[in-house]
């Protein structure tokens, strides 16, 4: 049983990680290239691939730690979880593909919305997760839980409500992309996040696959999907240095 102090520390780290990630993503998608010119943005898909590779490394380190850092045990577990369970591995391709779509949509959203609006709107994933849990897992929500979800929807609606204050006019004067595209990307990401999370939980409950093994497989499949995308666009770190290039891609 984790101590209350550890729970609060974990909550603080999670809040810091979430807010810093959003601010960093927003800054990286809206900052001007070196030299102040209108250069190309880096490919969001390449950032997603790097993130998934780091997840794979973290999962592998956790598996190693659970088995006294035995490489032989790690190899045996990966062989047992991936090669000897092909049907379970294929099931994980569904949430992996959805998470691939979701991670790219988040970059699209932050390219068109400010960080505060994005962060509040993205909390609708709580609502979508609850709805998918009720429909797919047969869970029952209490009256107060439904009221909380309705309050969440009202809060998101108020954030999107247009403002006529002078500060809002000054904010609109700065080009920040298309708010419609940003909100649409967030809404689709919320739906995909809710479905993929509940579906992943359903798979783990119905199969004999371990949670860490499932995370490793999901991350590997994510990298596979994103690798295919990068092969199509024929580049990896395009646009990070902000140099002019004949490649018109601004993904």
Write up what this structure looks like.
By secondary structure, this protein is an all-alpha fold. 75% of the residues lie in helices and 0% in strands. It has 11 helices and no strands. Helix 2 runs antiparallel to helix 11 and helix 7 runs parallel beside helix 10 (179-206).
Quick rundown:
By secondary structure, this protein is mostly helical.
List the helices and strands and how they pair.
Elements: H1 4-30, H2 44-66, H3 71-83, H4 86-91, H5 93-112, H6 115-121, H7 124-137, H8 143-160, H9 166-173, H10 179-206, H11 211-233
The termini sit apart by 45 Å
**Overall mean pLDDT:** 74
Q: What structural category do the secondary elements indicate?
A: mainly alpha
Tell me about the largest β-sheet: none
Shape, please? Answer: globular
Number of helices: 11
Q: Helix and strand string, N-terminal first?
A: HHHHHHHHHHH
Residues in helix, % = over 70%
Strand percentage, roughly?
under 5%
Kindly state the number of beta strands: 0
pLDDT below 50 for ≥5 consecutive residues: which ranges?
168-175, 243-251
CA radius of gyration: 21 Å
Key words describing this protein structure:
globular, 75% helix, disordered C terminus, mainly alpha, 251 residues
């Amino acid at each position: 049983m984790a101590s209350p102090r550890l729970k609060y520390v974990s909550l603080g780290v999670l809040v810091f990680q979430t807010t810093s990630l959003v601010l960093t993503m927003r800054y990286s998608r809206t900052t001007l290239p070196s030299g102040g010119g209108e250069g190309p943005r880096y490919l969001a898909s390449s950032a997603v691939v790097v993130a998934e590779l780091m997840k794979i490394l973290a999962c592998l380190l956790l598996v190693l730690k659970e088995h006294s850092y035995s490489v032989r045990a790690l190899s045996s577990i990966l062989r047992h979880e991936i090669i000897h369970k092909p049907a379970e591995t294929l099931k994980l391709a569904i949430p992996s593909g959805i998470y691939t779509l979701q991670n790219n949509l988040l970059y699209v959203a932050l390219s068109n919305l400010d960080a505060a609006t994005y962060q509040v709107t993205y909390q609708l994933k709580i609502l979508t997760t609850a709805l998918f849990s009720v429909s797919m897992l047969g869970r029952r929500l209490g009256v107060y839980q439904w009221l909380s979800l309705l309050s969440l929807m009202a809060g998101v609606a108020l954030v999107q409500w247009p403002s006529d204050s002078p500060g809002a006019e000054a904010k609109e004067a700065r080009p920040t992309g298309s708010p419609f595209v940003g909100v649409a990307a967030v809404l689709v990401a919320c739906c995909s996040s809710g479905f993929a999370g509940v579906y992943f939980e359903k798979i783990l409950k119905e199969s004999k696959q371990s949670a860490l093994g499932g995370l490793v497989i999901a991350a590997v499949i994510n990298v596979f999907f994103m690798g295919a995308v990068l092969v199509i666009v024929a580049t990896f770190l395009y646009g990070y240095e902000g140099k002019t290039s004949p490649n018109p891609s601004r993904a």
